[in-house]
Amino acid sequence: MTLGRYRWVLAAVSAALLWWGAAGSPATAATPDPSSIVVKDFMFVPVSLTVKAGSTVTWANMDDEPHTVVSDTGLFRSGSMDTNESFAFKFDKPGTYHFTCSIHPRMVGTIVVQ
Ligand SMILES: [Cu+2]
After folding, report:
1. Is the separation of the CB atoms in 69 and 99 below 8 Å?
2. How far is the CA of 97 from the centre of ligand 1 (A)?
3. Of 23, 25, 57, 85, whose CB neighbour count within 10 A is largest?
4. Rounded distance from Cα 33 to ligand 1 centre (Å)
5. Ligand 1: centre distance to CA 50 (Å)
6. What is the DSSP letter of 33?
7. How much is the pLDDT for 27?
8. Is 39 exposed, middle or buried (0-12, 13-18, 19+ CB in 10 A)?
9. Residues 56 and 93 in one domain
10. Phi, psi dihedrals of residue 89, rounded to the nearest 5°
11. Are residues 10 and 52 both part of a single domain?
């Protein structure tokens, strides 16, 4: 009888710990990748992204049109990205990096590297 009751308490504590672990620890896993930009509706989203030095930023084209990602200073340049294609660049040095789509020059964005 006492053993049975002890087991019940143990099960309850285990369940509570599991719940706490699931709810408490992987909060970061639920947030979207902070180093990715989506190209959609002829816009870079977000239009400005702040990352830490050493981060790799990925641009993914979710539009039905081809787009490119071209640094204003020539630091990086993607080829033409068709729908669902992506381009990645690693930012090693802090600074502010402006980029455009060479096909649609009104598409502009900024990466701030800290
Ligand atoms: Cu474009």
Report:
1. yes
2. 18
3. 57
4. 22
5. 21
6. P
7. 46
8. buried
9. yes
10. -145, 135
11. no
Mean pLDDT for back-to-back runs of 10 residues, the chain (114 residues): 58 55 48 80 97 97 98 97 98 97 97 97
Contacts with 25 (C-beta within 8 Å, 6 or more apart), sequence order: none
How many angstroms separate the alpha carbon of residue 70 from the centre of ligand 1?
10
Alpha helices in 55-105 (DSSP H): none
In terms of domains, do 17 and 39 share one? no
Which pLDDT value is given to residue 20?
Answer: 54
If you search the block for the tokens 């977000």, which residue do you land on?
46
Expressed in angstroms and rounded, the spacing between residue 49 Cα and the centre of ligand 1 is: 18
Contacts of 69 (CB under 8 A, 6+ apart): 39, 59, 76, 77, 78, 81, 87, 89, 99, 101
Task: Supply the pTM of this predicted model.
Answer: 0.71
Query: What is the per-residue pLDDT for 29?
Result: 46
Domain span at 7: 1-31
Tell me how many degrees the CA angle 80-85-90 measures, rounded to the nearest 5.
Answer: 85
* pLDDT score at 45: 97
